């Protein structure tokens, strides 16, 4: 119980730190997903909500820490395997609700005070992001490729003399009590997942590098340079993340192929690369921020001021800046207002097609027409 309680408390601490950092990651002009001018970033209403959100977030974490002890004891007392993160998941939902509460209150203050009418609004466009886009840093993909090749080599050697059965593979861990036939697919399943991760990461990087840039109309030149630095950093960290995920899958594949015995220590070891990839992401986001707004200005950029504030389009954003819907916007992928992330434009026809396809597959699966793969969680 002690090990799982420690893991649960660590998850609570991690979720709380991320939620406390979330308002700061978006920048001063996006107060809890609400667009405000630089002059209104220190408005008493905004400052009060930031303070209240921090206090309530810490209070919720304190309650979750106290509740975690009996919850973990109850779970470990049952025949079911211990579940790490149950309390942390509930805490995250509560803290997201607190974030949305702050969003609603600031938006109400903005409307009551007429902030949206202050200053001339506009947008800035930099066509060099199309003519000279940020290039994919291919060299940073070599570690992930190397891990993939090592895994494929070990899997191929095991495939040459496979046993009759293998333990059931569950991604980052196995179920030694259940055995499955050692088919080529079962033997090479870790390699297949690694290939899928690599392709998905490359596709995501390509789309993000060519998505609409997040520029500040008040400081167009400086924000464009910062955003280029930010995009390259995101691309590099994404490739490093793929390498970490591949390494975790390699470590979990060794007990699957019965190269090493499966132990609790080895299962924890398979998760270490995942935990390690959080560190550079957290450092990067803390130092750079959303769209690179924390990067220091170069000489000449400190005095840059166009006299235009960023266009106020709050009416197109929902769920505290997590969902964007604008039928008149041709962009499919846009930077979200929730932390440092991107989101689909729900008003775009392509998004409708994707959602319709997903709903159709789900409906067919529920009706029994389509059989979806029955597979345990990768984690």
TrEMBL record:
<protein>
    <recommendedName>
        <fullName>DUF5808 domain-containing protein</fullName>
    </recommendedName>
</protein>
<dbReference type="InterPro" id="IPR043831">
    <property type="entry name" value="DUF5808"/>
</dbReference>
<keyword id="KW-1133">Transmembrane helix</keyword>
<feature type="transmembrane region" description="Helical">
    <location>
        <begin position="191"/>
        <end position="209"/>
    </location>
</feature>
<keyword id="KW-0812">Transmembrane</keyword>
<feature type="transmembrane region" description="Helical">
    <location>
        <begin position="264"/>
        <end position="284"/>
    </location>
</feature>
<feature type="transmembrane region" description="Helical">
    <location>
        <begin position="229"/>
        <end position="252"/>
    </location>
</feature>
<feature type="transmembrane region" description="Helical">
    <location>
        <begin position="53"/>
        <end position="77"/>
    </location>
</feature>
<feature type="transmembrane region" description="Helical">
    <location>
        <begin position="12"/>
        <end position="32"/>
    </location>
</feature>
<keyword id="KW-0472">Membrane</keyword>
<feature type="domain" description="DUF5808">
    <location>
        <begin position="328"/>
        <end position="352"/>
    </location>
</feature>
<feature type="transmembrane region" description="Helical">
    <location>
        <begin position="138"/>
        <end position="159"/>
    </location>
</feature>
<feature type="transmembrane region" description="Helical">
    <location>
        <begin position="83"/>
        <end position="102"/>
    </location>
</feature>
<dbReference type="Pfam" id="PF19124">
    <property type="entry name" value="DUF5808"/>
</dbReference>
<feature type="transmembrane region" description="Helical">
    <location>
        <begin position="350"/>
        <end position="370"/>
    </location>
</feature>
């Amino acid at each position: 119980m002690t090990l799982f309680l420690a893991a649960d408390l660590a998850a609570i601490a991690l979720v709380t730190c991320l939620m406390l950092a979330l308002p700061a990651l978006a920048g001063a002009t996006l107060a809890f997903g609400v667009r405000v001018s630089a002059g209104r970033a220190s408005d008493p209403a905004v400052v009060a909500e930031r303070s209240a959100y921090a206090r309530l977030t810490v209070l919720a974490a304190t309650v979750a820490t106290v509740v975690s002890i009996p919850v973990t004891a109850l779970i470990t007392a049952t025949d079911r395997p211990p579940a790490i993160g149950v309390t942390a998941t509930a805490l995250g939902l509560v803290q997201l609700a607190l974030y949305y509460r702050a969003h609603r209150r600031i938006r109400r203050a903005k409307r009551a005070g007429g902030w949206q009418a202050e200053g001339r609004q506009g947008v800035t466009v930099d066509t060099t992001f199309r003519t000279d886009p940020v290039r994919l840093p291919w060299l940073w993909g070599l570690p992930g490729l190397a891990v993939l090749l090592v895994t494929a080599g070990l899997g191929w050697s095991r495939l040459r003399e496979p046993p009759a059965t293998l333990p059931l593979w569950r991604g980052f861990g196995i179920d030694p009590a259940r055995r499955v036939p050692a088919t080529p697919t079962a033997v090479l399943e870790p390699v297949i997942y690694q290939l899928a991760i690599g392709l998905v990461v490359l596709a995501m990087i390509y789309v993000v590098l060519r998505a609409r840039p997040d520029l500040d109309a008040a400081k167009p030149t400086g924000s464009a340079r910062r955003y280029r630095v930010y995009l390259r950093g995101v691309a590099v960290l994404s490739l490093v993340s793929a390498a970490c995920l591949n390494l975790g899958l390699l470590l979990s594949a060794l007990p699957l192929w019965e190269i090493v015995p499966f132990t609790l220590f080895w299962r924890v070891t398979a998760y270490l690369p995942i935990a390690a990839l959080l560190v550079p992401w957290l450092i990067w986001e803390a130092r750079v921020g959303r769209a690179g707004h924390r990067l220091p200005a170069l000489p000449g950029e400190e005095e840059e001021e166009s006299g235009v504030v960023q266009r106020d389009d709050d009416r197109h954003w929902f769920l505290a800046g997590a969902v964007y819907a604008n039928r008149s916007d041709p962009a499919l992928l846009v930077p979200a207002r929730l932390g440092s992330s991107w989101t689909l434009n729900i008003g775009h026809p392509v998004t409708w097609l994707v959602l319709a396809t997903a709903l159709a597959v789900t409906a067919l699966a529920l009706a029994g027409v389509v059989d979806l793969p029955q597979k345990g969680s990768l984690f």
